[in-house]
Write a structure and sequence with these properties.
Blueprint lengths: L22 H6 L23 H8 L6 H6 L4 E5 L2 E2 L9 E15 L6 E9 L2 E8 L13 E9 L2 E10 L12 E5 L8 H11 L12 H7 L4 H9 L4 H33 L10 H9 L6 H6 L4 E3 L5 E3 L21 H12 L13 H7 L12 E2 L10 E2 L5 E3 L4 E3 L11 E6 L3 E6 L4 E5 L3 E2 L4 H18 L1
Parallel strand pairs: 2-3, 5-7, 9-18
Antiparallel strand pairs: 1-8, 3-4, 3-6, 4-5, 6-7, 9-10, 11-12, 13-14, 14-15, 15-16, 16-17
Helix pairs in contact: 6-7
Length: about 475
């Protein structure tokens, strides 16, 4: 691999993905070892300032470990100004200043529980008065000479502090509360956002121990940062663009892992479900034949098609399920035994307004019109009919058109492009048998199988293909 073509993450410096890198710098770069995700399981109390009481409050937010903290992403960001000189400040303008404490006092007010901390502070450009409300304890930490980063607004009474940081003697603080793009994490009454932000700053070094769950091909195709960089940038981004890229990557990761978990759960349920006991091939068929009040001819036996079931792999196997020839009860034609020719004659008769192919009158025209009239009276038709017995039927999803119900079959009340016209009647049988009668176009058809469960995808696609071909042939 040519090192000059090494892909680097876009940090806004113009190089970006696909930009060339200096060969010498790459050779001198520190080699990383394998991630140690076990370090992310360290308890929150391993962080500075995370005592048992605050750790308990964090637990109420679902934060128990360093890894949990890194996954507790900000819900927004505040734009903090860059450090300004005191002499440059204007009334009402939000600003951040770096100053040194000269003196401090706690001033009581008429309100019993309200104390105001006033500090005289200054930088090289001049002095000012900084004010905190209800922070009396802070006065003990603001000894003369203490260096501070303050964020707030200047008014005629002084500088009202909204956020502050106490700097070390060498001024090494990062300004995580007061400068740049400041993250705002979900918090609670017992745990303030500032505390979570301080913990996140300590924990961010552990982001490199996170395992990368997304394939490299997916990350490259969608130009996503790696896991470790996304965790760093979502907490302390260099820019809004980097924050958005990190949030997008983490959100996509969460969705993918959720889908994988659902698929694994479905697979486990499917594998643990007891299978249908299938007797020796032909046993049910022979019992059925023995129950017939007549002896089928050799041609009839050859034409019989046993019922098959679709396996999870898409194969067809004998199902061991057949309808009895002499059922215990009649269901208005449900479970009828017939042939493709008979169904063809039935469809032809309805297309002919009750007249059979041989010219004989079966039903009068008024009965046909009544049969194809919607009897639902505006009652809503469901978008889907959930299965109750998955072995017998899949969930049936209806087309996004208006539906009705005639006397004997379902009605499609809108035109389907390239297929049936509005007013078409249709019905189906549990073994994936389908027919339709389009009186407006003079086209009808029958599609018959012996396959379970009902609404089998391959059978439905084939039936739709037959209908499309029929209309395409008519032009």
């Amino acid at each position: 691999m040519d090192l000059d073509c090494f892909l680097a993450r876009d940090r806004g410096d113009g190089e970006g993905l696909g930009g060339q890198q200096d060969r010498g710098e790459l050779r001198q770069a520190t080699l990383r070892g394998l991630p140690r995700p076990s370090l992310l399981a360290a308890p929150l109390t391993a962080l500075r300032g995370a005592g048992p009481r605050l750790a308990g409050a964090a637990g109420e937010l679902g934060i128990a470990s360093v890894g949990d903290l890194l996954r507790h992403v900000p819900h927004g960001y505040r734009e903090r100004a860059e450090v300004r000189d005191v002499a440059e400040l204007r009334i009402g303008e939000e600003a951040t200043v770096m100053v040194e404490v000269r003196s401090v006092r706690v001033r009581p007010t008429r309100r019993r529980n309200l104390r105001i901390v006033e500090a005289s502070v200054a930088d090289a450009s001049g002095p000012m008065k900084a004010t905190w409300f209800n922070r009396a304890w802070l006065a003990q930490r603001l000894a003369p000479g203490t260096r501070l980063l303050l964020n707030g607004k200047l008014d005629r009474q002084g500088f009202r502090v909204e956020a502050h940081e106490i700097l070390g003697e060498q001024g090494g603080a990062q300004g995580i509360h007061t400068t740049g793009l400041v993250p705002v994490h979900p918090a609670s009454e017992r745990l303030r956002p500032n505390r979570i932000r301080e913990w996140a700053w300590q924990a961010i070094e552990a982001a490199g121990q996170a395992i990368e769950p997304l394939p490299a091909e997916l990350r490259a195709r969608r130009r996503l940062p790696v896991e470790a960089d996304a965790l760093r940038e979502v907490h302390f981004p260099d820019s809004r663009e980097h924050a958005d890229a990190a949030r997008e990557r983490l959100a996509l990761e969460e969705l993918i892992l959720h889908q994988v978990a659902l698929a694994a759960s479905r697979s486990q349920r499917r594998e643990s479900r007891p299978g249908i006991a299938i007797p020796e091939a032909g046993a049910l068929v022979e019992r059925w034949l023995a129950s017939l009040p007549f002896e089928p001819t050799a041609d009839q036996r050859a034409a019989m098609m046993p019922v098959h079931s679709r396996t999870a792999d898409g194969d067809l196997v004998l199902s061991g399920i057949d309808l009895p020839v002499a059922p215990e009860w009649m269901a208005g034609g449900h479970g009828a035994f017939s042939t493709a020719d008979d169904y063809g004659r039935f469809v032809t008769m309805l297309l002919g307004d009750g007249t059979a192919a041989d010219g004989g009158r079966v039903l009068n025209a008024e009965s046909i019109e009544l049969a194809f009239s919607d009897q639902l009276g505006g009652i809503a038709y469901p978008d889907a009919i959930e299965t109750a017995v998955p072995e017998l039927s899949n969930t049936v999803y209806n087309l996004p058109v208006r539906h009705g119900w005639g006397l004997g079959f379902h009605l499609t009340l809108d035109d389907l492009e390239g297929m049936r016209r509005a007013g078409t009647g249709d019905w189906a049988g549990i073994f994936n048998c389908y027919y339709w009668i389009d009186r407006a176009s003079g086209i009808g058809g029958v599609f018959l199988t012996q396959v379970l469960p009902f609404f089998d995808q391959s059978c439905v696609e084939a039936a739709v293909g037959v209908e499309l071909a029929a209309y395409a042939d008519r032009g």
